[in-house]
Specification:
alpha+beta; 10-stranded antiparallel beta sheet; 2 helices
Length: 193
C-alpha cells in the first residue's frame, strides 16, 4: 500500500510539473499583455503574425456642436470585439473643430484585434502607424482632413482624428461618416505551427 501511494504521488508530481511547464509561458504572456497592453503584442514581431484589412462599410456618428462635451463616448463603431467612440470634440480658433476618436481593442487567447482608422504595420525600420480612414460631414459630404494619429499609446488601442470645418450655416448638429476603417489583427505564430 505504501509503495502504491509513493507511485501515485510520483505520477501526480510529474503531471503537475508537465502541466506547469506547458502553462507557465502562457501565463507569463497573459500577464505581460494585461500589464503592457496591446503594444506588447505589436512589439513581438518574431512571435506574432500581423494582418491589416480594410473594414467594409460607412459608420456615422451625429455630433452636437452646441455642447461639445455631450459628444464624448458616442459610439462610431462596435462589432462586439472592437469599439470606436468619440474621445473629444475641440473647437479650433477660426478653423472649426477637431474630432478625435478612440479605438478600443479586444484581447484574444492567442493575440489581439483592433479596428481603428489607423493601420499598424511592420516595416524594416520598425512599426508604422498611418491613418487610412476617410471622413465626411454634413449634407454635402465634404471631405475632412486628418488631424492626429497615434501608435498603440493606450493599453487597449489608439486614437485618431479629423478637422471639421465650421458649418457654413448655423447648425446645431452634424453627422460625421467614417469609411476605410482598418482591422488590425495579431495572432500568435505558435498556433499555426
Amino acid at each position: 500500500m505504501k509503495k502504491y501511494l509513493n507511485m501515485n504521488t510520483l505520477y501526480l508530481a510529474a503531471a503537475i510539473i508537465a502541466v506547469s511547464a506547458f502553462m507557465l509561458p502562457r501565463v507569463i504572456e497573459a500577464v505581460n499583455l494585461h500589464l503592457n497592453g496591446i503594444s506588447y503584442i505589436a512589439d513581438q514581431t518574431e512571435d506574432y503574425y500581423k494582418i491589416t484589412e480594410p473594414v467594409e462599410g460607412e459608420y456615422t456618428v451625429e455630433l452636437d456642436l452646441n455642447n461639445l462635451e455631450n459628444n464624448e463616448g458616442k459610439i462610431l463603431y462596435d462589432d462586439g470585439d472592437s469599439q470606436i467612440s468619440v474621445m473629444k470634440v475641440v473647437e479650433q480658433e477660426e478653423m472649426g473643430y477637431e474630432v478625435v476618436f478612440r479605438s478600443h481593442a479586444n484581447e484574444l487567447p492567442d493575440g489581439a484585434v483592433l479596428v481603428s482608422g489607423i493601420a499598424h504595420d511592420y516595416t524594416q525600420d520598425g512599426t508604422t502607424h498611418s491613418i487610412e480612414a476617410e471622413a465626411t460631414a454634413g449634407k454635402d459630404a465634404h471631405q475632412l482632413s486628418p488631424s492626429t494619429a497615434t501608435g498603440l499609446s493606450y493599453k487597449d488601442g489608439d486614437h485618431f482624428g479629423f478637422y471639421l470645418d465650421a458649418p457654413a450655416e448655423d447648425v446645431d448638429k452634424v453627422a460625421v461618416t467614417v469609411t476605410n476603417l482598418q482591422l488590425n489583427l495579431w495572432m500568435e505564430k505558435a498556433i499555426f505551427e
